[in-house]
Write a structure and sequence with these properties.
six-stranded mixed β-sheet; alpha/beta; about 40% strand; single chain
Amino acid sequence: MRFVIQVVSESDVKIDGRIKGSIGRGLMVLVGIGREDNEAIADRMVNKLLGLRIFPDENGKTNRSLSDVNGELLMISQFTLYADCKKGNRPSFTEAGAPDEAKRLYEYIVECCRKRVPRVDTGEFGAEMQVSLVNEGPFTIILDSDDIF
């Protein structure tokens, strides 16, 4: 499982020109589901995501979590996080999760977050989306379950 996490002052996602989800201060998270992923991995990834102390404190040190700053979440599914570019010029996506299982796990992740974060907006799994954001810092972190567990 892969999360690309960006600290934002605002972010939104549009589908067919209409805003599907939007947040103010918080995290915009691109969510990639791999073939071997399951609920146990999702639980650990959500715990790590929500526990990250990546917001500045009064001294400018990254010392506050999403809940410490009353932040919001925008969760966007993105299978292209599993692009394999080792051979040729056209990426392979064989390591991405099968669509039905990936959608189920993505929805599971969103529900886990909604139990702990007051505002969680989303895009739409499998849709063509336009994502806008103002990345603060810029501050971007990549969490890969293969690297952290």
